[in-house]
Predict the structure.
Amino acid sequence: MRKLKNEVIFLLTVIISSGACIETTKQVQPVVTEPTALATKVQKDCGNEEKLLYAKDGFSSYTEDKIRGKGVISFELQVNDRLDIYDEDDAVFGYIVLNEDQTFFTAQMPKKLVARKVIPELDFAAFDFDAEEESASKDYLFIYANGEKKKVKKADVKYRYQSWGVYLKKKSIALKPCNPLANAPNGGQNLVYDVRDMDDDQIKIKSSADCGGEESKFAPAQGWVKWRKKDLLMVDLKVCD
């Protein structure tokens, strides 16, 4: 009889304990990750990809995941300004001009350009190239285009050099499937993020509704992810609508 009584007490204890566990699982935890939780989350299938950014009148520009310089140089073109790009042996690689009618002349550029972000359209104009530090030469800026080092005369252009840390903090980003946000639903995919902080090869991100238009998806999410792995960019830079 005592044995049966003890078994009943044991069963009641298990049921009560189970109920308490079920109740606690209903609590919603915020989606926040810490840098130390990243290492096992980054998959090994991230590789260098080229993505089309712009195509018009026989000219197309692509971005790539491979990081080729210490930072990024952004060129600014005003009416009649011309961006001349040279090979290292001084041969002309190509040039872009902003015409008086606010269109860009790109006919003298290679038909396919691979750079960080080149969009020759006035409303979204961007001329960003991976680059070496501006102090690398007194007279030239060294940039990367189509996977090779090129040069631009400093005296001929308006430009701004930014380290990768500064550049990323001014951009909106999206996550690659191979680089998910830990503890976030679907790895934090299909969201756009602002970069809030950087710690070596990791960045702290927070989802944003400011990029992508009214139909873009939004959910609150934040945490730390890798922005690079050696010389590969682990996030996508977004072009906001």
